[in-house]
Design brief:
The structure holds two protein chains of two kinds. Chain A folds into two domains: 179 residues, HUPs (Rossmann fold, 3-Layer(aba) Sandwich), CATH 3.40.50.620; 123 residues, TPP-binding domain (Rossmann fold). Chain A is 25% helix and 26% strand. Chain A has seven helices and 18 strands. In chain A, the strands form three sheets. Chain A has a nine-stranded mixed β-sheet with strand order 9-8-7-10-6-1-4-5-11, with helices on both faces. In chain A, strands 15-14-16-17-18 form a five-stranded parallel β-sheet. Chain A has a two-stranded antiparallel ribbon with strand order 2-3. Chain B is α/β, with parallel strands linked by helices. Classes of the chains: A alpha/beta, B alpha/beta. At the A-B interface, helix 2, helix 3, strand 7, strand 8 and strand 9 of A face helix 3, helix 4, strand 7, strand 9 and strand 12 of B. Strand 12 of chain A pairs antiparallel with strand 9 of chain B. Chain B: It comes from Acidicapsa dinghuensis. Chain B: Pfam families: ETF.
């Protein structure tokens, strides 16, 4: 019998938020196909986190458990997930689009002679899967051909997690056959590069700067605006990569996820990796010279223009009303 | 160490986006191309490894004739030779999904028996972010993705992997291996005049996609499992109110919104 199998990910001792969103996407897909949803988590069957599974009720929760899976490795996860897929025989396998999934899901799909449809932002009738191209400047619609299993990963924030429903779910342990020699990488303990001294997530206003600022010497321009607004300064990845601002000020998938009252994006084009870190902001203002920049897709207010003219004018205007 | 770097030529970041008549891609007329950003970092890592430990750097690129320019750029920066998996036109490779293209790449490099295969993390155009990881599976090699730093340690490698939310980890793995490289951890070099001159004499082996497929029918794109049906300009997720006028007028209008509607001033 066909089904949709959704993999949930445990991070920081909880099932991650993006996992619930992937689960909602899986339920939407399953409802359109009229098939049941099963879930899978790498965890011991007695792990209390399995009791936190909420939203629409799945048919079965598979707890994939083996000592060799305690630390994530692409080889371990690929082999274990492949065995579960062979056992459960789903028609669709749905993942949250996390760094971990990006690391092993393409390998897993290849083992089934399939290609993962990565970073899906929408599911339409068909089913047709939407994903973004050209750094978010274009949407593309894909379909899966053939009767084999289809693999999807779901972008953060693209689906809303379902509200809880009453019901009980059977947890079924799944014990894969793993051998230590199959695992060819030795992972180290995760660490943070430096102690965090700025907490972007608690700032009500963020002034965030991107590639458009061109040079480090131009940063005081945005710093002055941030000071005038009593805002914290944030940045997109290229600015932190260049060392112009410390990494702890980076917003996006590899940096912080923020949702301030006001997010002012200056010279930021708005690649997916940045948008996932800030699109939950209550109000987004974008200043960019390119009217087609994807940042305008999530902006409430926009100024199309040269930031080197607009930002000083804005600083002056803010100071005027504040004085 | 023998290192293969897979590079892709992609439209420039600020390329004008107009959908072509087939509704499957953008109109490439007047579009400028450049080396995919994370691939440029992969090449840089390879060149630094070669400088520190000796060996050979070979670039491989799949694409039409125009990709030759990006291949020359890689040779000018210091790669030793190249393999150009050449498509006959702009559409031939579009018949392959990510697995199909990775199979072609694997077939064109497997005889090299490299110690290390590097790719960028993902392409700036299709953004699938899978080619390196698929290659690892096809070549039967271990891999690590989102890599910022590579150190040679004993018989293998110790690499720095980026995790989410500002976390990192080290991973040790034996060679041969595949790594996908994240952008930004090092400074990219420019080609020197001498390098550009030397590049003209370096070997570029051109393999036509059609010839490769003729030699191994299993590479045929008979049934890609994932098919692109159409492209569209994105819908706006929020309705943006554009504030026009001179910079001073737009700024004044914005401050008024921030004061009375957003209420943050």
């Amino acid at each position: 019998m066909s089904s949709v199998l959704v993999f949930l990910e445990i991070k920081n001792r909880e099932i991650s938020r993006i996992s619930w969103e992937a689960m909602a996407a899986g339920h939407q897909l399953a409802a359109s196909l009229g098939v049941p949803v099963d879930l899978a988590v790498v965890a011991n069957r007695d792990n209390p986190l399995l009791q936190t599974i909420h939203g629409k009720v799945p048919r079965t929760v598979y707890a994939i458990d083996d000592p060799l899976l305690h630390d994530y490795t692409a080889d371990g996860y690929t082999t274990a997930c492949a065995q579960l897929i062979e056992h459960a025989k789903p028609t669709y396998v749905v993942f949250p689009h996390t760094y971990q999934v990006r690391d092993f899901a393409p390998r897993l799909a290849t083992r089934f002679q399939q290609t993962l449809i990565s970073d899906v932002t929408g599911i339409e009738a068909g089913p047709a899967f939407t994903r973004q191209l050209l750094q978010g400047k274009l949407n593309a619609s894909y379909h899966h051909s053939g009767s084999e299993v289809c693999f999807l990963s779901i972008q953060a924030g693209a689906f809303r997690a379902d509200a809880a429903e009453a019901g009980s779910t059977a947890v079924e342990p799944f014990l894969p056959k793993l051998d230590a020699t199959q695992i060819r990488t030795k992972p180290g303990e995760p660490f943070r590069a430096s102690a965090q001294t700025v907490d972007l997530t608690s700032a009500p206003i963020l002034v965030s700067v991107g590639r458009g600022i061109k040079e480090e010497a131009n940063l005081p321009l945005v710093q002055e605006l941030a000071t005038a607004l009593s805002a914290e300064l944030a940045a997109s990845r290229p600015i932190c990569d260049a060392g112009w601002l410390p990494m702890e000020r980076q917003v996006g998938s590899s940096g912080q996820t923020v949702a301030p009252k006001l997010y002012l994006a200056i010279g930021i084009s708005g690649a997916i990796q940045h948008l996932v870190g800030m699109k939950g902001s209550q109000c987004v203002v974008a200043i960019n010279k390119d009217e087609n920049a994807p940042i305008f897709e999530v902006a409430d207010y926009g100024i199309v223009g040269d930031l080197f003219e607009v930002v000083p004018a804005l600083t002056t205007a803010v100071r005027k009303v504040k004085s | 160490m023998k290192i293969i770097v897979a590079i892709k030529q992609v439209p420039e970041r600020d390329a004008r986006i107009r959908i072509d008549s087939g509704n499957k891609w953008i109109d490439l007329e007047d579009v400028e191309f450049s080396m995919n950003e994370s691939d440029a970092y992969a090449l840089e890592e390879a060149l630094q490894l070669k400088e520190a430990h000796g060996g050979e750097v070979i670039v491989v690129s799949a694409g039409p004739e125009r990709a030759g320019k990006t291949i020359r750029e890689a040779l000018a920066k210091g790669a030793d030779r190249a393999i150009h998996l050449q498509s006959s036109d702009e559409t031939e490779l579009a018949a392959y999904d990510a697995l199909g293209v990775a199979r072609l790449l694997a077939a064109s490099i497997q005889d090299e028996k490299a110690d290390l295969v590097l790719t960028g993390l993902q392409s700036d155009d299709l953004g699938l972010g899978q080619t390196g990881v698929i290659l690892a599976e096809l070549l039967g090699l271990p891999h690590a993705s989102l890599i910022l730093k590579i150190e040679v340690a004993g018989n293998g490698l110790k690499v720095l992997r980026e995790l989410e939310d500002g976390w990192f980890q080290h991973i040790e793995l034996a060679t041969p291996a595949v790594l996908t490289i994240q952008s930004g951890n090092t400074k990219l070099r420019y080609a020197t005049l001498m390098g550009i001159k030397k590049a003209k004499t370096k070997e570029v082996r051109v393999i036509a996609v059609a010839d490769l497929v003729a030699s191994d029918p299993s590479l045929k794109p008979t049934a890609p499992s994932v098919v692109l049906d159409q492209v569209k300009l994105p819908h706006k997720q929020r309705s943006t109110q554009l504030l026009g006028g001179s910079p001073a007028e737009a700024a004044a209008a914005l401050v008024e919104k921030l004061q009375f509607e957003v209420r943050v001033i």
